[in-house]
Amino acid sequence: MATAAVPASRTGSGGVVRRRRRRVLMFPLPFQGHLNPMLQLAGALHARGGLDITVFHATFNAPDPARHPPGYRFVPVGDGVPSADLVPSGVDADIPGALLRINRRLREPFRDCLRQALALPEDDGDEGGAPPACLVVDSNLRGMQLVAEELGVPTLVLRTGAAACLVAYLAFPALCDKGLLPPTSKDKSQLDIPLDGLTPLRLRDMVFSPTTTHANMTECLKCLVDATRSCSGVIFNTFRDLEDSDLQRIANGVVGVPIYPVGPLHKISPCTEDSLLAPDRACLEWLDKQEADSVLYVSFGSLARVDGKELLEIAWGLADSKMPFLWVLRHGLLVNSSSSDDDDDQDKVRRLLLPGGFEEATRGRGVVVPWVPQQEVLRHRAVGGFWTHSGWNSTLESVCEGVPMMCRPQFADQMINTRYVQEVWRVGFELDGDQLERRKIAGAVTKLLCTEEGRRMRQRARDLRDKAIECVQEEGASKSAIQLLIDRIASF
Ligand code: UDP
């Protein structure tokens, strides 16, 4: 078999191992918070391991090939499958329902695409090149993993969430067997029951969303757990110093395969994210003019939504706080909004969504934009706090820049992340309550930005940031895990 250009890698004893060039196949979930870590992982494997990359992807939320180096191939899967079938919608979007549909609808098309990729001749320029070593698949894509198994391709699974979240999901069946899940009432005393062995989680943190059926949730988590147990290794976008005890629990046999904590991936592999929306960069110039640690950054990620009443409370809460803020009002954030990415004048659309008098009340100290370069925003010295929905990427990005958080989780793993932010790392707090209220919002902003308590949270976040930086240094824990992963891939 011909061998293509070979990257050399150093061994522990200083020797050099010559390796046959290999290709890694990848299949991310088509959502922003899943695409970014997969592409960052691709960047690390390509740059450090000299591996060629093939990215299989859904045709909606598709990555942009132009943003990636030569050696990458992008293969659309499921042309003709209507995206409306696959995208979650509604204020409490049924994401598990969408995940199950994605697996069902893309599985057959993927089989064809994978067969074709495996049949390509080796070393045939762009069309073939290095032979595939394995498939790295998002942990939510069990259907694609099964296809790979059928065709004899080894798989690795990428978990884009916290290790703590996987530990919680692994406990889901036992909680159902005990009769705790699904909860039988909405009574606070029942929902606040602490979960044995899952401190600091409560029963309510395990309820995915009010609109997800228990059947969908159970099936979805079974697929996820099966995926992690059936693969050759689980890759985590987290770092040892942040989640040592949960990583230890997983490594000590909960999953039964090797684990690779290689995060934070955006620090291992900067500049490789693939933003699905065009970021507003002018906001960085505005931040340049603000005082250090004075600005609240507000964003609820790419999927969370709010209704009109909540939007109003957010707007007046920010206005009443009297603090400077940068607010991402994403197209589609508002449920039932008639605006879309195609609307020509997004400034006008935003003005229509915001309440009358808001602009005047916040002029000079508030900026509202549809999308920002979030990592750069969080890194900016002016940003003193982050009001987040507690998606895992946002949580990790905030921790890695030493920015404390006020959290308003909505669904999925967001409640679990919030509990860790508040109770374990103590770098933020939950903005709780059934309804968002402007008075509570303004109070929370003040607590985060202007009090001794907020300052202590910032200090703890900065300590974690320093540990994250150590982990991604050359001999750091995450860099070492990347090298182990590359060695594993080379062994297939
Ligand atoms: N993001 C961004 N610009 C924005 C808002 C979000 O680049 O204006 C990115 C953010 O940096 C993060 C991702 O979108 O990497 C959101 O992922 P997360 O897991 O936090 O939430 P999700 O969107 O999956 O709910």
From TrEMBL:
Q: Give a GO molecular function annotation for the protein.
A: quercetin 3-O-glucosyltransferase activity
> What keywords are annotated for this sequence in UniProt?
Glycosyltransferase, Transferase
InterPro entries annotated for this entry? UDP_glucos_trans
What cellular component terms from Gene Ontology apply here? cytoplasm
This protein's source sits in the domain of life called Eukaryota
Which family is annotated?
Answer: Belongs to the UDP-glycosyltransferase family.
Could you tell me what this protein is called?
A: UDP-glycosyltransferase 76C1
From the UniProt record, report the name of the gene that encodes this protein. Answer: LOC103647206
